[in-house]
Amino acid sequence: MMEHSELATRAFVDVHAIQEELEQLRWGLHDDGEAAEHAAAEARASVLNLITVVGNETRLRVVTRVLDRLSITNPSRTLILLAQHDRDSPKLEAEVSAQTRTETGHRVTTERVILHAHGEVATHLGSLVTPLLVPDLPVILWWPGRPDFDNPLFDSLCELADRLVVDTDEGFDNAHLERLLGVARRDEARASIGDFNWARLIAWRQIAAQFFDMPGMLPRLAQIHGVTIHHGIDGSLTQAKLLGGWIRSRMASVNIEVPVELRPDESHEHGVGRMLIVTGGEGGVARFSISRLQGARLCAEIRIGDQDFAARTVRQAARSAEELLAIELLLPGHDVLFERALAAALQ
Is there a contact between 230 and 263 (Cβ–Cβ < 8 Å)? Predict the structure, then answer.
């Protein structure tokens, strides 16, 4: 049977008071007889500290729903910062809550603190975050939307974070991508980078690599002529740039330079619609293509000379925000392939 318990309190601005309230809420979710039995187990159940930053109540509601669903499988100490820098009247409030859920068959408690700040106070929320983190657990900073890279709050939180998770599909241009790569390559306090857009390309990258796992195909990579990536016509190029950067960076690792062309495709409104890899080799020119079809499918085809090989189709269901975030929470350390792809995309 599912159990979902929640207690909450508001208007704490003292860090020690927030910590005490979290402890009281954790114990308050149990009957007296079972509190001691579960306290130690639940302390071990938290696997990370998760910080997320939003700028308005609408985004707060969306993020809260994502985190509610994510908490079933990824229990954490979650800190949501509602930082409204454009509000004039000073404000700093805290809402503290704890949830106990048993959908997985085990009792799991997730603790959440929402810090709501206006104006200049919002810039300094990082100083309140540090004492609220659970020691010895990784710190993940999820920044929905495009970060304000020039805001001191961004820098202070990146210095705390082991990993920064963003979605480069949300209005990132080359200048923003440069700043993002810079976070991963700092001399000090560098954070690994996770990107929802990169996770969306997993199937594309897997299928492209599998082409050349087939017997006799690997030598063709040494005779690669070029890659064309067709993308939607809405002006969003980041996904196509990342896929092209991935191919360029992988081939550069064996000293092969690959021309990559990004081409608008009216049959698609958004994202990567088709990728074509052209190579030479025995039997004539080879064309390896991956196309996005209706019904959440990808079609992989090979044509060598005048001969077509049997096409195959794989499912590519759209992943929800919580699924994409869960992928990024599980990846340890720096994603070197992503960083190299990002760097190549910017060249």
Answer: yes
Q: Which of 42, 16, 48, 47 is nearest to 29 (CA)?
A: 42
| Residue 246 belongs to a domain | yes
* Whole-angstrom distance, CA of residue 125 vs CA of residue 300: 48
- Cα–Cα–Cα angle for 281, 284, 287, nearest 5°? 85
Question: What's the domain range around 231?
Answer: 200-315
Q: Alpha-carbon distance 346 to 182, whole Å?
A: 12
Residue 132 lies inside a defined structural domain of this protein: yes
Q: Is residue 181 in some structural domain?
A: no
> Which string of DSSP letters, residue by residue, matches 158-221?
HHH-SEEEE-TTTT--HHHHHHHHHHHT-SSS--EEEEHHHHHTHHHHHHHHHHTTSTTTGGGG
pTM (2 d.p.): 0.87
State the total domains in the chain. 2
270 beta partners: none
Residue 44 pLDDT: 45
Question: Tokens in use for 326?
Answer: 């869960």
pLDDT in tens, 260-293: 999 999 988 899 999 999 999 888 999 999 999 9
pLDDT digits (tens, 9 = 90+) for 77-136: 899 999 988 777 778 888 888 777 666 566 667 788 899 988 888 888 888 899 889 888
How confident is the model at residue 43, as a pLDDT?
Answer: 45
Same domain, yes or no: 225 and 124: no
